[in-house]
């Protein structure tokens, strides 16, 4: 829960209006597109905001972020 509170505080500091889901989406998208946040950090921010909304009985259309496909780890032969 502390992580969620911290993320919500960061969103507010970066200009998100926590009472407006579109504002929150915009701030998260900006952080992700500017490579400030990874996809997992952006997804965690979405989860934190979803938790806040659920306390008020509200829902939103949560975006999903991905870093794309990663190459599999192939160990070197020894």
3D architecture notes:
By secondary structure, the chain is mainly alpha-helical. 54% of the residues lie in helices and 0% in strands. It contains three helices and no strands. It has helices spanning 2-13, 21-33, 39-55. α1 (2-13) crosses α3 (39-55) and α2 (21-33) packs antiparallel against α3 (39-55). The model has no long low-confidence stretch (mean pLDDT 92).
Topology:
Blueprint: H1 2-13, H2 21-33, H3 39-55
Task: Please report the distance between the alpha carbons of the first and last residues.
Answer: 45 Å
Shape: elongated
Strands, total number: 0
How big a fraction of the residues is strand?
under 5%
> What is the gyration radius calculated from CA atoms?
15 Å
Quote the average pLDDT.
92
How much helix, percentage-wise, in residues? 40-55%
Number of continuous helical runs: 3
Write down the secondary-structure element order: HHH
**Biggest β-sheet strands, sense, barrel:** none
pLDDT < 50 stretches: none
Structural class: mainly alpha
Protein traits:
mainly alpha, 78 residues, 54% helix
At a glance:
The chain contains 3 helices and no strands. The protein is mostly helical.
């Amino acid at each position: 829960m502390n992580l969620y509170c911290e993320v919500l505080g960061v969103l507010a500091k970066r200009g998100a209006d926590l009472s407006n889901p579109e504002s929150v989406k915009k701030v998260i998208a900006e952080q992700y597109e500017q490579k400030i946040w990874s996809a997992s950090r952006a997804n965690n921010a979405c989860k934190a905001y979803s938790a806040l909304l659920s306390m008020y009985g509200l829902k939103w259309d949560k975006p999903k972020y991905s870093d794309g496909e990663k190459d599999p780890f192939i160990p070197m032969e020894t």
